[in-house]
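Let us practice reading a record.
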Amino acid sequence: MGIFILRRLGVMLLTALCLTFIVFWLTNLYPNLEKLAKTQGNFRMSDEAVTSYLDDRGYLQPLPVKFGQWLGVMPGWVTEKEDGTTFGRCFDADTPEADRRTRCGVIQGDWGFSTVFKDEVGSTVATRLALTGKLMLCVLLLMVPSALIVGVLAGMREGSKLDRSLSTFSIATTATPEYVSGVIFIAVLASSKFGLSPILADLGWIDGKTLFLGSATSAMKDANFWNFFLPVLTISLYGMGYIARMTRASMAEVMTAQYIRTARLKGVKFSDIVLKHALRNALIAPFTVIMLQIPWLLNGVVIVETLFNYKGFGWLLVQAAGNNDIELLLAVSVVSVAVVLVTQLISDIGYVYLNPRIRIS
């Protein structure tokens, strides 16, 4: 197992480096750099002024050199102005010469400066990632157990009324986009004029005007059931159907296996057959699907975060791409790649745990 993990880690590092280089190349194409210069300077800048701006800040260096500086394995660029002042990638003009660093990059923990938020990229990403991590945790706690229960119940007795009902429910949840279900939940549960909230308020069953809060902005500081349940429910329902369908298909296949038939002929209780014999083998395929939900939750909740005004990691990605914030976009991309690779490693290890017969090669 140790050798297997070390090999996977090596492949992960190589993959992350290649993918990061591709993203770095795409974000450093000249049209993006020209847009950055005009955004930070003046949209009426001449071509000569744009070239001077980019050259002074090291953007016109060869791509491998810029990539090495961004990683922190090569010395950063240094520019000396005509008035004698000197500034570079790793220090400002007013930085004492004794404190000037030669290398500053990802390896040194320096992710750059965000041109949109006017703050360090590392702290900006960490703040938004923590917010989305809180949302992801709540979604997984609701989505995964619910999906597994629905899938197992549907797959235990294939073709029954319960199976058809739960399968229809799973398909309906997956086929309904988040922006549709989210709007419906806001109208039905978070409106003071329509839906259930006015009825419950008139009956005196709720203290406020609405059953839930339609905005999750306050949940960024203090999340509770009132202001955080609707975005969690919206995301959970959309992802739950796919996991439930995969669990149902895997469970139905396992229930027809020969060893399950043998257990039935021996008179083993049906509940013991499901829990002790079928469930573990049926969870192998859904486990991968569950792990794939984590990268999707990280970057795929943009619609829900926008709908409920929750400024998390997905919202940050949109801001970085829409405002051509190169340093921030690179950091977001690196984090996304790292999450995908780590979840894939956990998925592979989980495969071995759930089914030791899988050979590690």
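A brief commentary: The radius of gyration is 26 Å.
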